[in-house]
Design a protein that fits this description.
- It is a single chain.
- With about 475 residues, the protein is an alpha/beta fold.
- The protein has three domains: about 1-105, 2-Layer Sandwich (Nucleotidyltransferase, domain 5); about 175-260, no CATH class; about 260-295 and about 320-460, Ribonuclease H-like superfamily/Ribonuclease H (Nucleotidyltransferase, domain 5, 2-Layer Sandwich).
- It is about 50% helix and about 15% strand.
- A five-stranded mixed β-sheet has the order 3-2-1-4-5. It has a five-stranded mixed β-sheet with strand order 8-7-6-9-10, with helices on both faces.
- Helix 7 crosses helix 19.
- It is globular, with a radius of gyration of 28 Å.
- The N and C termini lie far apart (about 80 Å).
- Mean pLDDT is about 80; it is low at about 175-185 and about 480-484.
């Protein structure tokens, strides 16, 4: 009997094959698709009877069905219990697959119950219907709230809510439409399928959509939480547009900002690509700094020089720390697509790959990636070309020094085939930084690093919404100026 441990991921799977004596026969990696899984099963068929184990994940069932259809014994391990058993091992894909195979050989796998396929399909159908019912009820409640807020009474002859006659009556109502900026924000939230609330038990006074829009507007106004809430109390059209009966307390916005999931907020930036109808990405990667305080640089430098030093201060250069933001921007539409934060000063190059990884969920082809000399590294060229399938245009630092040996075949090729015209569109990302800082400022109001990161994400929402509005106005202007 041979034992196989599978460490599965969405894109790839690590497989470790172990015999009954505990010897590892192979530890290989392959793509998580049906073709390569079947090819792997064909390779292990000559080994005889095998038993397979994998951890329970949200996407493991199709792999489970493939292996079970091939006639092999399959077990699904409970993730949290497996984690307790393997806490002492280094966390790598190879080690995880080997540990699963070892636990299977020792018959120590904490199994999860897997119902038959027919029962699983019925469960999925039930869950899907339940989510539709919840969404439908939420939308109906919002419609009732809008009517109540405007004092609109349903005619007595429309007794059945949301019947065909009732829906026609709702569509005939002349309700004031809202500003372009808020329209863009709401549309993006719906396209991105951002949930109305984090939990079904959350407070029903305000939705997460309203919180996100208000926090993005706060960046536009450059106000603290308290001052912003006091200022929008008189903006009745704004409140009507958002469907708010009253302005949230400033602590409500602050608590939502603290609890909001950063990854989910970053995914919202990709939804702007749908509104701009961007099908192929032309990216430029660059970084900029934001001051963590509103104090002037001269004041901070003077205090540091005089701190703990009586008498005349020495003339020496001070290293000022700042919040560093690395951005992947779409150069043709000048939209922020992905952001990465760290404390500066720091080297630019390590953030290149991490920023581009956040573009992958957009599921759009990337044609070209441009960056300055700070991102010149063979690993950056390799990731952009092999993973994203994009061309890279990054100046080589040692190109002007012929005596210095240039490492990396991709860097040597870049230096040999350099084209200034292809590199010029990179300056569009500098335009993005300029507009963002001119409108929303170059310092952040938050003091905690996690809150500073979220504040800059909301600032990116505000910038992208303004940019989409400008693109729409340019389209209208070109349409009316077009010759007939």
């Amino acid at each position: 009997m041979n034992y196989i441990g599978l460490d599965i991921h969405k894109k790839s799977t690590q497989a470790c094959v172990m015999n009954d004596k505990g010897k590892v026969l192979m530890n290989v990696r392959f793509l998580s698709d049906s073709k390569e899984i079947n090819e792997f099963l064909d390779k292990i068929t000559p080994l005889g009877a095998v038993s397979v184990v994998m951890e329970a994940t949200g996407f493991c069932m199709y792999i489970y069905d493939i292996i079970e259809a091939a006639g092999h014994d399959v077990k699904v391990a409970h993730p949290s219990k497996i984690k307790a058993l393997t806490a002492d091992r280094a966390k790598t894909d190879k080690n995880d697959a080997e540990m699963l195979a070892e636990l299977l050989r020792l018959n120590a796998i904490p199994e999860s119950y897997i119902p038959p396929k027919e029962l699983r399909e019925l469960r999925e159908l039930t869950r899907f219907r339940q989510s539709l019912v919840w969404n439908s009820a939420s939308i109906k409640n919002q419609i009732h709230a809008i009517l109540a807020m405007r004092g609109i009474k349903v005619p007595p002859n429309l007794r059945s809510p949301f019947s065909k006659k009732h829906v026609r009556w709702l569509r005939s109502l002349d309700i004031v439409q809202l500003g372009d900026l808020l329209d863009m924000m709401e549309l993006v939230l719906k396209r991105a399928r951002y949930p109305l609330r984090r939990s079904r038990y959350a407070n029903r006074l305000y939705t997460d959509h309203q919180h996100v829009v208000l926090l993005a507007l706060r960046q536009h106004f450059r106000k603290s939480y308290r001052d912003f809430c006091e200022e929008i109390e008189v903006c009745t059209l704004l409140l009507d547009e958002l469907g708010l009966r009253r302005v949230p307390h400033w602590t409500t916005l602050h608590k939502f900002s603290r609890r909001a999931n950063t990854r989910r907020l970053e995914r919202l930036l990709l939804a702007y690509l749908d509104e701009a109808r961007v099908r192929v990405l032309h990216l430029a990667v660059d970084s900029t700094g934001f001051s963590p305080t509103s104090a002037s640089t001269y004041y901070v430098r003077t205090l540091k020089r005089r701190e703990g030093k009586p008498g005349r201060p020495r003339n020496r250069r001070e290293m000022s720390h700042y919040l560093k933001q690395t951005v992947a921007a779409e150069t043709r539409k000048q939209l922020i697509v992905a952001v990465k934060f760290r404390r500066g000063p720091a080297n630019d190059s390590p953030d290149f790959i991490w920023t581009l990884k956040k573009v992958l969920p957009a599921e759009r082809p990337v044609k070209i990636v441009r960056a300055d000399k700070g991102y010149d590294a063979e690993s950056n060229h390799q990731y952009a070309q092999e993973v994203l399938g994009a061309r890279t245009v990054i100046p080589v630092r040692a190109a002007s020094r012929p005596k210095v040996k240039m490492r990396g075949k991709r860097r040597r090729k870049m230096a040999k085939e350099w084209d200034d015209e292809e590199y010029h569109p990179r300056v569009k990302v500098e335009t993005v930084f300029s507009v963002e800082k001119r409108v929303s400022g170059s310092h952040v109001l938050a003091r905690v690093p996690s809150q500073q990161h979220k504040e800059l994400i909301f600032r990116a929402f505000s910038y992208n919404s303004r940019r989409l509005e400008s693109l729409f106005l340019l389209f209208i202007e070109d349409f009316y100026k077009a010759p007939y």
